[in-house]
Amino acid sequence: MGIFSKHSYPPFFETYLHTFKAKKKNLTNTRFVVFDTETTGLNLHNDRILSIGCIAIQNFSIVVADQLEIYVKQEKFAKESVKIHGLLKFGVFTKVDELEALKVFLNYIKNSVLVAHHAAFDIGMINAILKRNHLPKLKNKVIDTATFYKKTKYVKDNNQYSLDKLCAIFNLKMHDRHTAAGDAYLTALVFLKSYKLLQKKKKNLRLSHFVGWL
Description:
By secondary structure, this protein is of the alpha/beta class. Helices cover 34% and strands 17% of the residues. The chain has a single domain, classed as 2-Layer Sandwich (Nucleotidyltransferase, domain 5). The chain has helices spanning 11-18, 82-85, 98-109, 119-132, 145-150, 163-169, 180-201; strands spanning 31-39, 49-58, 61-71, 113-116, 142-144. Strand 2 and strand 3 form a beta hairpin.
């Protein structure tokens, strides 16, 4: 694997960067990509991504046909994490190496606004792959659904909201919990329901009202 200097990025990353030259987004033309990662653990430096699940939202509707699921080959593997995500080192899924997973992911998300629950972790795991390949961090705007939900409240809220807790608040059935694709879909539902609550609170919503809420 070659080392890419800041002045010489590989074609797949240049293509990703080029998407940000498009005209400024507004709510009607914004593509949101809701994503989740399943990992070997919670350490951003030592642990690795095992799978990535993504689903797109356009015009505040889930686009079922626009989704992605990637399984990543990893030498590092924590047996204790299997009981959470169910992914085995030598499972039945077709797996790609980490760099190929990164290429596919960036080609899919392009300049979309990224949405994740406790997004700092998932973004950090993707950025760690970028760093290992001598590339800059993600450029996308990001929304954390835990923080986003708090913005719908009329009073200051210092509570911590897990995905399970928000699913309970919104009465969502938790199918495929702790799979990347399943959690991405649940997070998408939480995001849309939170958006509807925010609409009632604040009229004339603009994208700037809720992007970057990490």
